[in-house]
Structure formats: structure tokens, C-alpha cells
Design a protein that fits this description.
The chain contains three helices and no strands. The protein has 183 residues and is an all-alpha fold.
Length: 183
């Protein structure tokens, strides 16, 4: 009969039951009396058949016990792997939580930098407008169409008179234009 190591309580109990059954099967029984021998002959044949059947049953039970032990080993291995996977998942969950917090922080920084970029763009635009107006002169209080057809010659004549200054070198105009009157 094959021997198997027991890993669980149930398989150990089964192995002890098998050993006890085998001990009973192979134990010595006192010889029968002469009167009982004749009836025993008939029973001997049936006893031998029963003994052989019992041995086969015990062998089958032992084989089933070995298979159960193999299953116990497989279940224990699966449980160990499952615990390992659970630990891995817990580790991944903590890493994902950390990454989510990091992403939230980065998103906050990106949003605030976008707001700052918009503000800087607005300030740059205002600065550029102010710089473009720096060299501009606006004259108020002159009647409409006083400049006539040539605004440059009007300004050449009028500016020295209005300001009381003589300009050396003569004034240089890059552009001169009239603004539309407000509605």
C-alpha cells in the first residue's frame, strides 16, 4: 500500500484509520474448533473473498487519501499565492493613491501657472500698448479740418508757434493721421 504524508488534520485522521483497519485485517485470530471447522470451510472461501475485497477497498481508500493530500498541497499553494497577490494589490493601491495625489498637485500647479500666464499676457499687452503710444502726441482743441489736405505741413508750421520752441534738427514725423471723432 502506498504511503502518504499527511498535511492536514483530515488526511492525518484518514491515514490513522487506514493503519488501524490494516492491523485488524492482519491480526491473528485463534484457530477454530473441529466442529466449527466444517462450517468454517464454507465461510473460509467467503472470508477470503471478503478479505480480498477489503484489501482492495483499503488500497482504494489509501489512493484517495494520497490524492486528497495532493489536493491539500495544491490548495495550500493556491492560498499562499493568493495572499501574495493580495499583498501586491495592496502595494499597488498605495502607489496609485500616491500617484493620484501627485497628479492632483501637478494639476493645481498647472492651473495656477495658466492663470499666471494669462495675467502676464494681459500685462505684456498693456505694456506694448503703452510703449507704442510713448512716441505719439495727441492734440486736442483744434477745429475740424483745420489741417487741410496736408497734415504734415500743418504740423511743421503749427508746433513751433504753439510751443514757442524752435526744433533743431527739424521735427521728424513718421506718421500723422486724424482720429475719427467719438460718436
Amino acid at each position: 500500500m502506498p504511503e502518504c504524508r499527511s498535511l492536514s488534520k483530515n488526511s492525518g485522521k484518514l491515514a490513522r484509520q487506514l493503519l488501524f483497519s490494516e492491523a485488524l485485517l492482519h491480526s491473528k485470530v485463534p484457530p477454530p474448533t473441529p466442529a466449527a471447522q466444517q462450517t468454517t470451510r464454507h465461510h473460509t472461501m467467503t472470508d477470503q473473498a471478503q478479505e480480498s475485497t477489503m484489501e482492495r477497498i483499503l488500497q482504494e481508500i489509501s489512493a484517495v487519501g494520497c490524492r486528497l493530500e495532493g489536493m491539500d498541497n495544491a490548495v495550500a499553494s493556491l492560498m499562499a499565492e493568493t495572499k501574495s497577490i493580495c499583498l501586491d494589490v495592496a502595494g499597488f493601491q498605495s502607489r496609485v493613491t500616491g500617484l493620484e495625489q501627485h497628479v492632483a498637485t501637478v494639476e493645481t500647479h498647472v492651473a495656477s501657472s495658466q492663470d499666471r500666464d494669462q495675467e502676464l499676457l494681459y500685462l505684456k499687452m498693456i505694456d506694448l500698448e503703452d510703449r507704442s503710444r510713448r512716441d505719439n502726441i495727441r492734440f486736442l482743441g483744434f477745429p475740424e479740418t483745420i489741417e487741410g489736405a496736408d497734415i504734415h505741413s500743418f504740423l511743421w508750421k503749427t508746433l513751433p508757434k504753439v510751443t514757442g520752441m524752435t526744433f533743431y534738427p527739424p521735427l521728424e514725423f513718421q506718421r500723422a493721421h486724424r482720429l475719427e471723432p467719438p460718436d
